[in-house]
Design a protein that fits this description.
The protein has 15 helices and four strands. By secondary structure, the chain is mostly helical. The chain has one domain (45-375). A two-stranded antiparallel ribbon has the order 1-2. Residues 1-18 have low confidence and may be disordered.
Length: 384
């Protein structure tokens, strides 16, 4: 589980928010993870292949960046109708989501390549999505991957007061309708990254004094964040308006459509893996912080796969539909998930552990819709 070893985190730092760090069970047998890890390692040894990406991932990277950049070049260089330009902005959004799921994600997990500098370069593609590497590694690599689906620790469960993702979250009357309006909000994900989230998160992490190994000072992070935002908005908004003389409101509409498309895709893929009926959302002991299960078993119980036999979904989502495999082996490139999923599923079955999956994306979306409707119902006993 070599996750906690690369992060700088302690109880004192998190207790400023009156929270105990969850501690995964040491009493539960470690045989499951030891057996699974041994079998997966044996698979790569027998196949004589690396756990990182190969030519398939490199080719996909070229395709995804082309989908992201080529439409923007066409918009700036060709005299085409506004409606066609609008369609191209949708295509940019698809490319943005594709780069995020396939390139940035593997890069920031260190699974894109065996060379750290290539991982760093590919991970930096998050800036093209209006994100920030430092914030992503803390929110995603540390908090989400370590404390998956644990309220107040996994920030992916945070939805403010607009949406209610957990039975442990406070209920509001408007949540009764969240299964009807959630799609409207999901599309705002990357737009929120661009404008608000990164500043809020960096402020929060600064107060928590949280970082990861080999990260630079927070002063450096603030300077980098501000510069990256200036460059980002200059590229997507200032350049089209002041250099290519495109009407300002058309640029803003295109910018919104681009982000809404990417945000909708990314949000759905993220939520189908964890915010769904079959995914547990356990709480640690309120006094000790102890969790019921070991880390690996916790990942099985809080994570769900979907549409793993669909080649298009497998290819486009960067293996994020194989969320179980990704959470247990985040440092293995997604291009291997289809193969090792057979090992994971078999081993889980042998140890009488759950392996939650939906055969189709459609069934997973329906389950997510049903879950949101359930979470929107007024609880019999409100959480204090």
């Amino acid at each position: 589980m070599a996750i906690n070893s690369i992060f700088l985190l302690n109880n004192k730092q998190l207790n400023m928010n009156q929270r105990l760090i969850p501690r995964f069970s040491r009493k539960e047998s470690k045989m499951f993870f030891q057996t699974l890890n041994q079998r997966v390692n044996q698979y790569f040894k027998e196949k004589k292949i690396a756990k990182t990406g190969n030519w398939k991932l490199y080719l996909k990277t070229i395709v995804m960046f082309t989908i992201l950049i080529a439409p923007f070049v066409l918009i700036l260089s060709l005299n085409i109708s506004d409606w066609f330009k609008l369609l191209l902005t949708i295509l940019i959004g698809i490319g943005m989501a594709g780069v995020g799921m396939n390139v940035m994600h593997d890069g920031n997990h260190g699974s894109f390549s065996k060379y750290p500098w290539i991982n760093k370069l590919m991970g930096s593609s998050i800036y093209m999505l209006a994100g920030n590497v430092f914030n992503w590694k803390i929110q995603h690599n540390i908090l989400h991957h370590t404390y998956t689906n644990i309220k107040d620790h996994d920030e992916d469960l945070e939805a403010g007061v607009v949406l209610r993702f957990s039975k442990h979250a406070e209920w509001k009357p408007h949540h009764r309708f969240q299964h009807l309006y959630f799609v409207l909000l999901y599309g705002l994900l990357t737009l929120k990254w661009a404008i608000i989230s990164d500043f809020v998160k960096l402020t929060r992490y600064q107060k928590m004094n949280i970082s990861y190994a080999n990260s630079r000072s927070l002063s450096y992070q603030w300077v980098g964040l501000i510069i990256s935002k200036i460059v980002y908005f200059s590229f997507w908004i200032v350049l089209p308006i002041f250099v290519f003389n495109i009407v300002w409101w058309k640029v803003l509409v295109g910018f919104f459509v681009m982000h809404y498309t990417a945000g909708l895709i990314l949000s759905l893929v993220f939520q189908l893996a964890h915010v769904i009926g079959e995914a547990d959302m356990p709480l640690p002991d309120s006094k000790t912080g102890d969790m019921k299960n070991s880390w690996a078993v916790h990942q099985l119980k809080t994570t769900v796969n979907f549409s793993t036999k669909n080649r298009i979904i497998n290819w486009f989502t960067g293996g994020l539909n194989h969320q179980i495999e990704h959470h247990i082996f985040p440092h293995i490139s997604h291009i291997h998930y289809t193969k090792i999923s057979e090992i994971v599923k078999q081993t889980a079955c042998e140890f009488n552990l759950p392996y939650n999956e939906y055969k189709t994306t459609r069934s997973a979306i329906f389950s997510h819709f049903k879950f949101l409707k359930q979470m929107g119902m007024r609880p019999v006993f409100l959480t204090p």
